[in-house]
Amino acid sequence: MLFNQTLTYISLFSGAGVGCYGLLEEGFECVATNEILEKRLNIQRINRKCKFDESYISGDIKKPETKEKILKQIEFYSKKFGNDRVDLVVATPPCQGMSVANHKKKNDEIKRNSLVIESIDLIKQIKPRFFILENVLSFYKTGCIDKNDNLLEIGSIIEQNLSGDYMLYDEVINFKNFGANSSRTRTLVIGICKEFKDFISALEFFPDFKQEKTLKEVIGSLKPLAWGEYDSTDFYHSFRTYPKHMQEWIKDLKEGQSAFENTELNKKPHRIVGNKIVLNVSKNGDKYKRQKYHSVAQTLEINMIIGGPPCQGFSNKGKNLGLKDPRNFLFLEYIEIVKAIKPEIFIIENVKNIISCAKGYFLEEIKERLNALGYQLSYQILNAKDYGVPQNRERAFIVGASRFSFDFNLLELSQSVNVQDAISDLAYLCSNEGAFESDYLNPIQSSYQALMRKNSPKLYNHQATNHSQAALEKLKLINKEQGKECLPKNLHGKQQFKSTWGHLNWNKISPTIDTRFDTPSNGTNSHPELHRSITPREAARIQSFSDNYIFYGNKTSVCKQIGNAVPPLLALALGKAILKSLRK
Known about the structure:
Rossmann fold
């Protein structure tokens, strides 16, 4: 701050200085501005961003002489105007390596991301009262090479280097909510010197929300232009020319419509190869698209996020490694997504051991991190059999809501369904019989089967595993409703679980369907009467998937799709309860 109480700032990677315009409007004085391209600095000079020519510093920020010029200007302001300390450093290091906007990435992306390190170094040297880093949405989780040649996440490097002296706050915002004329989602990292921790909150840095503007409000007063025309009163208002054949692509488009939606082949974006039309690929949804004149640019708003971070490390069937299993920490990635999108509600589903694993460490960590984001958490172990699913499947559900505490008592219980109710109408198949698509051969025999067959004219995925002759001989030795106990000990195999080689019981609910239901030696996975494991469709029925839900892929993939899923009827009950909460 200067003798006259004027606030000062330094801008790094400043481009043409457009981002500094607001600071100048608020009365800040620019001590130094750094940009590698001289032509961009010249635009800043024309707009009189700085009072002194020495404050315009052109050069690579990685070079010591560039940093020295910046530090020299700080010293000049200190001696000349009594600047006790730079109030603010703003840095916007190049983001191409982090952005999803460019489809063709270059090999030096991570090197460019490492310019963040140069920003951090200067912040540590300058010691401003505040700093702001601005970049794309994925900024905090992007890889970056530190001074020791380690590849780390940018967020981790910022915290390691600056959290000792600064309170750090990172937020993903859309600038259109703060008065900007276009939708622009960016990550802001705000650092506040800890000496101000009792006086200033990072939230005070944000202005009030403003009404979003329509395209008409922004550009409606500009002169309409013809092909190639310039506005004589505004050099920057011009109709850029482009290849004439592209006019056909866009001339008949309605508001919000893309040229890729045209029905005529020659009106779709294309190129000519050997006298033939080769259609372009639509990589960005907004390419060749006519803007909506009377609407605000659409931004996707997400009400709810549902996720089930991999559960093998928590499961009783695995080694239950707890803190030693890196898969268990994928819930941190889930929390980062919740933090970025800010849904009204989120759901985490996992095996029930997530509640108790590592002496409750994971549950407490989830609660602490999400409570800090403003969510109220509720959790409970639900059994799918209580919600109309013919399966004993216990899973932990954690529900977080921003406006209320979710009450699991709102879930409506359903009548129990057994295996016979679920699959008795499906064709009896022997090993290696069946087809991807087939007709129904038997009539509906239960209300559950009627529900599953609704809107499904054909039967899909009803194909039996091709068991080995040795497996078939074992299966023939096992009585109905029994399993491994029927086999001689020399045929028990390596599996130690008592439930292996077991037949399902027509009159009971099924045990938990997992991803290896096609293998009799993996559990109670065999048909109640036949010498084979259950088919993917039978497993899907037991999971409560409707018959019109079709699974694609090889056998292993299909088994994982079915076995890893949350039963749809349980999801339906939970969804209805959440809707009740929202409508309150």
